Amino acid sequence: MAHILLVEDDLTFSLILEGFLKKQNFQVKVTHRLKDGLKALQEQPYDLLLVDYRLPDGIGLDLLKECKATAPSLPVIMMTSFQDVGTAVRAMRLGAFDYITKPVNPDELLMVLQEALQAKTSTAPSSPSPVTPAPSFITGTSEAAQRLQEMIQLVAPTDMSVLIQGESGTGKEYVARTTHQYSKRADAPFVAIDCGAISGDIANSELFGHVKGAFTGALQDKQGLFEAAQGGTLFLDEIGNLSYEIQMKLLRALQERVVQPLGSTVSVPVNVRVIAATNDDLQTSVRNGDFREDLFHRLNEFSLKVPALRHRGEDLFLFVNYFIEQANRELDRNVQTLSEGVTAIFSQYPWLGNLRELKNVVRRAVLLSPDEVIHKQALPDEMHLLYPQSAPKPEGPDLKALQEANERELILKTLQEVRYNKSKAARLLNIDRKTLYHKLEKYHLLG
Ligand SMILES: Nc1ncnc2c1ncn2[C@@H]1O[C@H](COP(=O)(O)OP(=O)(O)OP(=O)(O)O)[C@@H](O)[C@H]1O
């Protein structure tokens, strides 16, 4: 029976959730504060952590960071309100398994929990390496996608180090896998590691291995990922998060092609191509002294930029169809298409969380759609309330109507830009919140 630690400050909601999870045969420990969550984690091991983003004494991200440092294989699921999706994306970067938006849909929660627990058993901690088979992917037909594909084909057969840059959730891991598949190393392992999810000694030992007794808890020799990727490709995701010490060791591994396991005096030769990815601006990190310049140049022998979903034009609906098919299979549904309203909303929405956000929204919508069409009701509330079709521009010399149409459009655009944070929108629009609410009502933007 999987043991879940639930950290949620809303007493009623945590009670409901606890009851629901227990009914589903989970063992549940509930705490309401960050501090108590941390204490619970130190007292005994859990199989999964379900944590609210906003807690009275801190934010869920702090608990996540702590977890990733002390128990990197513990899957963490973050619960956020829809307005906090930007934060959820940050949580994923820090190593959260997934996020779900509130109000929590029980079926969706169950699905995510099961996926997380399955993933945990298939990549047990200290397993020899997280070598996973490549899932199927789509390339896209937009100009940006085609250009990216050409660049991948160009660099793949060489042994150059590649630095993949792009916003969170744009599919950087897919690009790394494709590069490996088109390379001469395709028959050797592709090993991926999320550097954002590991730190200190753990990062050192994960990458370079350790010998028995190297540190407290090192009960036997462990092969590092460099050795596990021997002959193949090592994909270092979120490279910007590596400590300065590990950056130095990494540089040595790249330059001298040897690694030295923690606690060992022996250097092991390695033949590994490194592909790194980041959604930080590494050049700024170099300027700020947070990232070694020599390592940056060594990793950036070739650079690939993965476009944001909002810049991929027609690809959006290719991905929608792909994710619908995937969700139909997983959830035993038979969704075939989107309603006109949903299509319009999808086209206007900025998709700041990129493919990951799209996949989550589609999966949730498929789950909530009993028939063949996804209707607006299956989208998160804010998405369909704030995306009414844009009103047609008035014709003729009606200055007042024209001004109002422009004002409505500007408000809508600003709200989208700040992810519906009304205080921020009001500040940007240089009006107070009350006036903003008044205008939202006037222009029927409150649903
Ligand atoms: N070409 C593709 N075809 C189908 N699904 C894709 C494709 N690219 C990415 N995805 C899906 O989109 C999600 C996000 O992709 P991925 O994890 O590669 O993004 P990322 O840019 O590495 O994210 P992060 O910056 O958080 O590490 C994953 O669920 C992945 O399966």
Account of the protein in words:
46% of the residues lie in helices and 14% in strands. It is α/β, with parallel strands linked by helices. It folds into four domains: 3-122, Rossmann fold; 143-307, P-loop containing nucleotide triphosphate hydrolases (Rossmann fold, 3-Layer(aba) Sandwich); 314-381, Orthogonal Bundle (Helicase, Ruva Protein, domain 3), CATH 1.10.8.60; 399-442, Arc Repressor Mutant, subunit A (Orthogonal Bundle). The strands form five sheets. Strands 2-1-3-6-7 form a five-stranded parallel β-sheet, with helices on both faces. Strands 9-10-13-8-14 form a five-stranded parallel β-sheet. Strand 4 and strand 5 (58-59) form a beta hairpin. Residues 123-135 have low confidence and may be disordered. The site of adenosine-5'-triphosphate has 18 residues, from helix 4, helix 7 and helix 15. Adenosine-5'-triphosphate binds at residues 92-93, 137-138, 166, 168-174, 237, 279, 322, 355-356, 359.
